[in-house]
Design brief:
The structure is a single chain. The protein is mainly α. It folds into two domains: 1-71; 72-133. Helix content is 80%, strand content 0%. It has five helices and no strands. The protein is flat, with a radius of gyration of 18 Å. The two termini are 28 Å apart. The mean pLDDT is 87.
Length: 133
């Protein structure tokens, strides 16, 4: 097999697997965050425990970057369109919810911002994939 083809051929599959792994790590750390903060013996470890769930988000940045570098120009354009649209939708959802808290909706933790953006990204990507067929 041509070595130049392999990264492009398997880029999508690897991207989905890596995103799933990073998302599971994020969910686990976000779930354990409050417990870890409570168990921290000093303020420095408390701060470290509080920021721990952000590490998988940074890892996801590198997963996305790696995927972007592996795909061809046509797929890059489609990928960037999907990211732009899903970011806009997810951001609008988050801002709308923030305004609805003024009407009495219960405030949710910032921890839910990433899952909201990730779900909008996944749904937008799926819809755009089907629509482009």
């Amino acid at each position: 097999m041509n070595a130049g083809v392999a990264p492009v051929k398997y880029a999508g599959r690897n991207y989905i697997i890596e995103c799933a792994i990073v998302s599971l790590v994020y969910a686990g750390l976000a779930w354990a965050r409050h417990w870890l903060i409570a168990q921290a013996p000093n303020h420095v470890l408390s701060i470290a425990a509080a920021v721990l769930p952000s590490l998988p988000i940074w890892a996801l940045f590198f997963v996305v970057l790696r995927y972007y570098r592996r795909i061809d120009e046509f797929e890059k354009q489609r990928f960037l369109e999907t990211i732009a649209l899903s970011f806009a939708i997810g951001s609008c959802l988050l801002v709308t919810f923030a305004f609805l808290t003024d009407a009495g909706l219960t405030w949710i933790d910032i921890t839910w911002a990433w899952p909201t953006l990730a779900v909008s990204w996944a749904l937008t990507g799926g819809i755009m994939h089907v629509a482009r067929r």
